[in-house]
Amino acid sequence: MAVQEARQSGMDAGVGEAAHGGGCTCGDCPHGVREGHRRAVAAFLRKRDEFAAGQGLPAAVAHSASASRQWVSEELTQAAGVVAERGRAEGAAWFARVWRWTAVAVWAAVVLLLVVQALTAVGAGWTDARTAGLLAAVVVAAALTAASWFHRARGGVLAPVIGEDNRLSTSRAVAAGWVLFVVYAVLVLAGRLAAASGRGEREALIDGLGLRRGVGVVTVLAVVCGVAVLVRRVVGVRVQAQRLQKVRAGRPRAADLLTDDDGRGSFADIQYVVISAAALVFAAVRLGRRPDQLPDLPWGLAVVVLVSAATYLAAKYAEGGRPVILSVVRAREAGDLDGPIRTGDDIEIRGVGFVPVGARSADLLSRMVVRIGAVNVHVPLVPVKGGFANPTDTVLTVPVPAEVEPGRVEVQVITAAGVETNRVAIDVTE
């Protein structure tokens, strides 16, 4: 009751502020989804740090540690919900405008190619190969622009490389890069073949498409495309089997190609992107030097790319793991007497994997639930300066509610990704 009264008074005090929230479009305050999200994040961080310092607690709950913790957790959960809502709105707006950025980037690449060709043609003269290369770039850019428009609600050109978790997929991005390069190379040869006048020149161009010329490129293309398909299957199966925890991101970011879901640098992703990019640059130079055949990627370089792809795939098989409860004990503060677990006591659940990778935000932490017998207990958010002391990846602290019947009951954790841990039995006394 004290918690509800305190929350009602807080809501009444904040009516004026809510009237001019982040989504407001009136003339006397900033508006827009980006500004709304920024302001919601700033308000949440300010509130979290105030609570961590012991400030802002109403007198109705200040006398009780458990009531204070519950009130603070509920307030932070509501504020985190506002942040998540603003973040989803910003993500939707980002998708609506990013297709234009990608289309501009594609045509900027065409202009850059034209400038490079014009500079390299000084002294050497303009050739049919340069014309074919420029026309091939225009065709590819036009196709990508059309695809970007049709998929403008899903990120334009980026739509095929965005995974189910709303992050950029490293394997799909690498495969897309090789596919686009091979398509461009074939179009260059097709343009040269259309402009060829002599029979010998036409036969030489057709021979340039032979497998013995481009076996390295074809092998790499087959492997990276296979890795992209296989990684999607591996991740999907592991998520369904609850051996891998995945949470959805607010929107894709370029850093997704080099980091894990938590934003930390990933060796497997970095080496795969860097080595593939270097091989693509080499293949592009070979195409520029020999525009009459598919780039003959040396086997040494091709094997390096294959080893990199195998390393990336092995990392996908090895990542993740199911959350596990190792033990459940009665939480004890300084000065407390030792004793059995009773209703109303706090229990400390020790284990691993309680917080999924990418689920460090407050709105996802607040979704964690501990099932004690037949009662579902939401894990309270305990703020500290710069973060939360509860929940953590290895320890959760929750109260045993009065609804739990005394006797032997089982404890189980449900993470923010919806994955259930093993069950551990405890004895609850009256």
Automatic annotation (TrEMBL):
<keyword id="KW-1133">Transmembrane helix</keyword>
<feature type="transmembrane region" description="Helical">
    <location>
        <begin position="267"/>
        <end position="285"/>
    </location>
</feature>
<feature type="transmembrane region" description="Helical">
    <location>
        <begin position="215"/>
        <end position="235"/>
    </location>
</feature>
<feature type="transmembrane region" description="Helical">
    <location>
        <begin position="173"/>
        <end position="195"/>
    </location>
</feature>
<protein>
    <submittedName>
        <fullName>Membrane protein</fullName>
    </submittedName>
</protein>
<dbReference type="InterPro" id="IPR013783">
    <property type="entry name" value="Ig-like_fold"/>
</dbReference>
<keyword id="KW-0812">Transmembrane</keyword>
<feature type="transmembrane region" description="Helical">
    <location>
        <begin position="297"/>
        <end position="315"/>
    </location>
</feature>
<feature type="transmembrane region" description="Helical">
    <location>
        <begin position="104"/>
        <end position="126"/>
    </location>
</feature>
<feature type="transmembrane region" description="Helical">
    <location>
        <begin position="132"/>
        <end position="152"/>
    </location>
</feature>
<keyword id="KW-0472">Membrane</keyword>
